[in-house]
Structures are given as C-alpha cells and as structure tokens.
Design goal:
about 50% helix, flat, alpha/beta, four-stranded parallel β-sheet, four-stranded mixed β-sheet
C-alpha cells in the first residue's frame, strides 16, 4: 500500500438523494444528484457502499421511506458505512428544524454528515451560520409561495380560468406567454351536443341516471376518461349540478386539509393534505364562461333530480339486519335489495352495480336476507346466552391479548431518551431566539414540530406503560361470565328489530359468505376491564 493511501484512507459512505414531485429543474433530479455524488467521491477519496433514494417526495414531509431506512440503519452498529453524503441541506428537508433533528440524530449515532454544496457544521459557530442560512432559505420559499398565491388570485379576479382540464363539453385553452393571454374555456361542439341531450333527457323525459348510462352505452357515446369506457352515475350527477354549463365557473371553492378519517392508514403519504373541505359559497370567486344550456333548463333538471330521488325504489326502507356488515367472497360489499316491492329480500354483491352497464365479473348469487338475518341473530344469542361458550371465548381472547402485548413490548427507555434529546434541541432554539437570531414567529414555527414529536413520544410511553399493565390483568371470573350470560338470556330473545340492529352494529365486524355458508366475526363487550371478546362463528342453512 502506498503512502498516499495510508495517509488518506478510503472512507465508506452512504448517499441520500431526494427530488420533489413537481421539481422539473435539471439540477434537482435524482439522476443529476447521483452524478454529482460520483464526481465528489472521486475527488475526496470516498467510496459509496449504499444508496438511499426518495423519488417524488416533498421536503416538507419528514416521514419518507428511504430517509426512515437511513435513520434506522444509522443506529445499527454493524452498518457498512461511516458517513452519509447529501447534495444540499434542502435535499434532507425543507424546514431547518427537520434538518437539525435528523442531523443531530445521525451525529449521535456516530455518522458523519457531508454536503456537496456546503460544509456541514462541526461546532457551535458553524451551527449558527448553518441555521441562519436555513432561515433565509425558508423565508425565500415562503415569499415565493405567497407571490405565487397572490398572482393566481389576481389572474382569477381578472376573469382568467386556472385549471388543468376543462369539464366535459369544453376545451381549455392554456395561457400564452407571448400574447399574455391567460387560460379560458371554449365550447367543444361534439361534446356540447351530448351535454344538451343529457340535460334534456332528465328535464323533459324524467330519465334516471342509470337509464341515461345505459342509453349512452347503447349509442356508443364514451366519456372523456374511463378505463371501462362507460359513464358513471356519479359523473352524470356532478355534470347535472355544475353551474359551468350556464356560464358560471368558480375558483377557491375548497381547500386542502389532512383527512380526519382516512380510507387507508398508510405510514408513508406523499401528500398529507389529501382531502378537501368546502368553503362558504360567498367566498368563491365566480368566473364567466360560455354557456351551453339555459338557466331555466338547469333549474328544471335540479327539480327533476330531487323528484327522481324521492321516487327511487331503492329508498324504500326494508329491514336488513346485517346491512353494512355483510360482504361477498369476491371482496366487495353486499347490499340489500328487495325485488317485487320488498316481497323478497336479498344481500347481493355490489359488483354488478359498479360494473353496470357492463356484465358483472362476480358470479356469486344473492343471499336470502331473511334467512341470513335469522341464522346470524340465532348464533349471536346462543353465544351470548351460553356460560360455557362465553367462558371459552374469554379464555381464547385473553390468551391472544397477552401474546400480542408481549410481542409489542416497546423500549420505554429509548422513547424517553429521544424525548430528552428533542427537549434539548428546543432549548437551543430558545437560546437562539434570546440571542436575536430570529423572531418569535420563527421560533414558534421551528419549535412546534419538535413539541408535537415530544407529545407523540410521551403518548407512546403512556400507551406502552398501559399495555404492560394489561399483560398482568386477570380474566373475568366465572361469576361475571355467568351473570352476563344470564342477563343475555332474559333480554335477547324478545327484542324488536331496532334493538337487534343496534346490537349487530355493536358486536359484528364482518359477515362473509355465500348461499351455502356465512362466517361471522366480531367482538362482544363484556366488562370495564376486558372491553371486547372476539368471536368467529359459522352459520349454515338447515
């Protein structure tokens, strides 16, 4: 080995690259970041052994798959690398507080942080300079965002349409920088004829949305965008209520929010504010556009839609005990349907509704609702009224709960240690504010996410402590089970439908099956200590 290699040994490193979804500048693409890494490593005697890449992720979100893996791997003492190379601090995170959080975490794990564009802070003075740079970068981004918002607002108030795609019946002419002409709508005559025809069908013939879907399919008229090539009733419903067709479009009718009850509980979300919330109509900014139909026709259609809804046979209230809980084996929900004005009641797979007007893909037959309701209710009453069966379910559930609690043991000490680190970081921000490094508004902005993280950690500690206490809980006594079963015997057998329905909604999670069998799963509230006893029962017609 030569002297140069001995004096300056090769350092094994990992790289982290990130590019946001809307970034189009060449220097911000991951490909160019990786190319820059190769040039930098050759000049500085570095060797890349692992790469972490977050493609299409915003720097305002700290929870990113590759970044989380980097942070977890950094805590592993057997990792193959000793430093991490990042193109620029804003590739790590947009917010300075997030940058400091991750960098402190990596340093404490013994990982050196190297940036291509700037020198990573090594002492208190460097940290202050790095912080000032980060503050100015955040301030510039905030100014750009506000200018962009005000620019859009000015254009809209001048009557310009800002959108990505026009509604059916219109074509969107995008802005022209040379002529300084902003976006606007023009009528597409072929689609406008279809719009007029649909409005006429509802207003003059009283056709329902499903009938219109079928007619359009028979006429070979396809929607603008559809994987199946057929119209959807929700699309037609939106069209028939949209005031753009009488010459009134709008801007600012809604704003993005974090969903309160997300449909999917995903750990990683590229867009936190994935839901929309309506603003009061008086706050909307109206923009005039060419009209396709008259206001009288639009009003007549609105009245007819209300009439159609009131007369819809599906609004007839039949008694379905398992409504909302019963599913098909194909994975779709089953919905109650009463042909011949409710003479026969069935739970039918909703696949045929979603496939309409095309043939359904699910071939499962409908389940007789009266038989299914009777069987499931019988099984529930038998279980809740039997001391023996309840005792078996209690023992099974309690054992599974203990196993789950033991498997999910959380390192409370590590959580508390992380909270102490975050409090120290918040204190550094407070000292920076005291030294006049930034304003009180900026202090709140930087410390708020840290305080939120501390609150989350404290909640995790509390939950972990509570769960560890649950492991030591004793199952309910035989007497408690006997009392519960005796009370169930007295009350369950003579209940009316509303009371039965309330119990089903409370204890049944899911009913899956066919005409031949039903599998029922759920939880039965037992007492204050043991909130739920899970069960899984099979029902078969006699």
């Amino acid at each position: 080995m030569n002297d140069t290699a001995t004096d300056n040994p090769i350092k094994l490193i990992a790289t982290y690259a990130r590019v946001s979804k809307n970034s189009e500048e060449e220097e911000q693409t991951i490909k160019n970041q990786l190319m820059t890494f190769n040039d930098f490593t050759e000049k500085n005697n570095l060797h890349i052994v692992q790469e972490y890449k977050d493609d299409d992720w915003s720097g305002d979100i700290l929870e990113r798959p590759a970044l989380d893996k980097l942070r977890l791997d950094a805590k592993n003492k057997d990792r193959a690398w000793e430093a991490v190379l990042i193109y620029d601090p804003d590739r790590l995170a947009r917010r300075y507080s997030y940058q400091e959080l991750v960098m402190d975490e990596l340093r404490e794990a013994g990982v050196e942080v190297i940036f291509v564009t700037v020198t990573a802070p090594k002492n208190s003075e460097d940290k202050i300079l790095h912080g000032v740079r980060g503050l100015f970068a955040e301030y510039e981004r905030a100014k750009i965002a506000e200018r962009f918002r005000l620019g859009k607002l000015r254009k809209v108030r001048e009557g310009h349409v800002l959108t990505t795609e026009a509604p059916y019946g219109y074509h969107y002419i995008r802005n022209n920088k040379e002529t300084k002409q902003h976006g606007y709508y023009v009528i597409k005559e072929d689609e406008a004829k279809v719009v007029k025809m649909i409005f006429s069908w509802v207003a003059n013939e009283g056709l329902t949305l499903r009938t219109i879907v079928k007619k359009l399919q028979e006429m070979g008229i396809r929607p603008r965008k559809s994987k199946r090539g057929v119209w959807n009733t929700s699309t037609l419903s939106t069209m028939l209520r949209h005031k753009v067709y009488i010459g009134q479009t709008h801007w600012g009718s809604s704003y993005a929010v974090v969903p309160e009850k997300p449909l999917k509980n995903e750990k990683y979300k590229k867009m936190k504010k994935s839901s929309r919330r309506k603003r009061p109509e008086q706050e909307w900014i109206n923009i005039p556009v060419p009209a396709i139909i008259t206001p009288d026709l639009f009003e007549k259609v609105g009245n007819q839609l209300k009439t159609n809804f009131a007369l819809c046979q599906r609004n007839k209230k039949n008694e379905y005990l398992l409504s909302g809980r019963v599913e098909c084996t194909c994975g779709r929900k089953r919905a109650g349907e009463g042909p011949q004005h409710g003479k026969h009641l069935y739970y039918r797979c909703t696949d045929r509704v979603y496939s309409f007007p095309l043939p359904p893909t699910c071939k499962e037959k409908g389940i007789n609702a009266r038989i299914a309701d009777k069987l499931v209710w019988k099984k529930i009453t038998e279980l809740m009224s039997s001391e023996k069966l309840m005792a078996e379910q209690v023992e099974r559930w309690f054992k599974s709960r203990q196993d789950k609690n033991k498997a999910n043991v959380v390192d409370v000490g590590a959580l508390k240690k992380e909270a102490v680190k975050l409090r120290a970081q918040a204190e550094r921000y407070n000292k920076g504010y005291g030294a006049g490094a930034f304003t009180v508004e900026q202090l709140k902005e930087y410390t708020t996410p840290i305080k939120e993280k501390i609150s989350q950690l404290e909640m995790q500690v509390a939950n972990a402590t509570k769960e560890s206490g649950n492991v030591r809980l004793q199952p309910p006594s035989q007497t408690q089970v006997a009392v519960f079963a005796e009370q169930a015997k007295k009350t369950l057998h003579d209940l009316k439908f509303p009371a039965q329905r309330a119990i089903v909604l409370n204890v049944v999670d899911k009913v899956v099956g066919t005409r031949d069998y039903l599998q029922v799963t759920g939880n039965i509230p037992l007492n204050s200590n043991v909130k739920f006893i899970s069960f899984n029962r099979h029902c078969r017609p006699a």
